[in-house]
Design a protein that fits this description.
about 70 residues, mainly beta, four-stranded antiparallel β-sheet, 4 strands, about 40% strand
Length: about 70
């Protein structure tokens, strides 16, 4: 999910050939819930350079509590 979210954040800046991943990290903070609970992901492109893009993804549960976060460099 962090890989896809990061790629979509880069694509939202107009760069549709998003390249390969050079670094990916996920930190789990809380339980995501139970089966059939909904999680929301918010992906952001923090910086878009000439050769690399830096993205972050936040995962929130139905109560808008942070359950995980990820960073992705492409």
């Amino acid at each position: 999910m962090v890989d896809i979210g990061g790629s979509l954040a880069v694509a939202s800046k107009g760069l549709f050939a998003t390249g390969v991943s050079t670094d990916l990290n996920v930190t789990y903070i809380n339980s995501g819930g139970k089966i059939r609970d909904t999680l929301r992901a918010e992906a952001t492109c923090e910086k878009l350079g000439k050769t690399l893009a830096y993205t972050s993804v936040r995962f929130l549960n139905g109560k808008d509590e942070l359950v995980a976060r990820g960073s992705h460099t492409k």
